[in-house]
Amino acid sequence: MHKAMMKNLIFLHFILLGTLVFAQDPYVRSTFPVNKSENLSCSTPIFFTVEFSVEGSGFRQGTFKKENIKLYPKGKSKKLIDIVLGYNTDIQKVIVTPQELLEGNTWYVMEFSRKFKDNRGKPFLPYKLEFKTGNCPGNENNETLNEAKAIGNTPVNLNPIKITSFKAEKFNDSVKISWTAKESLLTEGYFVEKSTDNQLYTYLGAIPALGDLEEDLKYSFYDSYPNSGEAYYRLGVKLTLDETRILDTVEYFTSGVKFLDRRVKQDEELPLLFYSKKPTSMVFVLKEPDTKMVVFRQAKLLPQGKYKIGIELNGVEKGLYIAYIQTTEIAVKTKIQVE
């Protein structure tokens, strides 16, 4: 009796230990479509909910890449489908959108690999999803709906959307994202996403379609919290039946500076990353936090573009300082520790 209880306790210990280890591994699960779903659209997006542990609540930089996801017809793993990868941080969802029309009445496999990692460097559990498309417009042996049909004697465009312009520009302290579109009956609205590396995108917001099928329509969206340097804005469209498609991407550049390290050793360079839309002059100043006395000052001429520079803090004693950087376009203030 005693031996049997001990075996049960040991078995329970290993189950609990395995559960705790498993809980630490980040993973995803599909919310649409679910595994083995059938009769799906040939342009269906795929949505995953992301589950992080408390210690690793975010993707590690450089691992959130579309190359780490494979989408292919079942049995043809080398015939990869090009995709666009999105990530909505507000609701922790990954969105995979095929960039080509899938074949109708075909089983597809999507693999989420362990090359995705959380911000601790812990890999995600592998995940595989299978789904089957239905009778899709535009495929061989299917009725083509992408051509103009007629309701009565009036031709109606059933192509989802046509974008004739898409741009991002400075507007006061914001970035104005604007586009012109030719819509169809399938257009429900638009959404805008933002990235700093053209890889990991976050959701900014959405606008409903105006629904005029005859005129080119103009839309505007504002990013009230623009970042310094490079930014990428991506425009997507929401269609009927909850389909989404990525339409276009635009790059936006604004002047700015980023401190690559706020702790520096004596007589070493303080690394900075500059973004400059045009050649400019820069002044760097260090002050004592209490007395406000200037202990270091340096001026530089900066070229146009994105580049790294180093400020040599020769002769600066160890301690905490207030650093000021000013150019003709920006002014930045932060704390620097000299060790």
Taking all Cα atoms into account, the compactness measure Rg is 27 Å
Identify the CATH architecture of the largest domain.
Answer: Sandwich
* Helix-residue proportion: under 10%
User: How many discrete structural domains?
Assistant: 3
Largest sheet: 5 strands, mixed
- Across the major sheet, the strand order is 19-25-24-21-22
Mean pLDDT: 77
Span of the ends, CA to CA: 65 Å
Descriptive overview:
With 339 residues, this protein is mainly beta. The chain has one helix and 25 strands. The chain has three domains: 26-133, Immunoglobulin-like; 156-254, Immunoglobulin-like (Sandwich); 256-338, Sandwich (Immunoglobulin-like). Helices cover 7% and strands 51% of the residues. The strands form seven sheets. It has a five-stranded mixed sheet, with no helix packed on it. Strands 1-3-6-5 form a four-stranded antiparallel sheet, with no helix packed on it. Strands 2-8-7-4 form a four-stranded mixed sheet, with no helix packed on it. The chain is globular, with a radius of gyration of 27 Å. The termini are far apart. Residues 9-23 and 138-159 have low confidence and may be disordered.
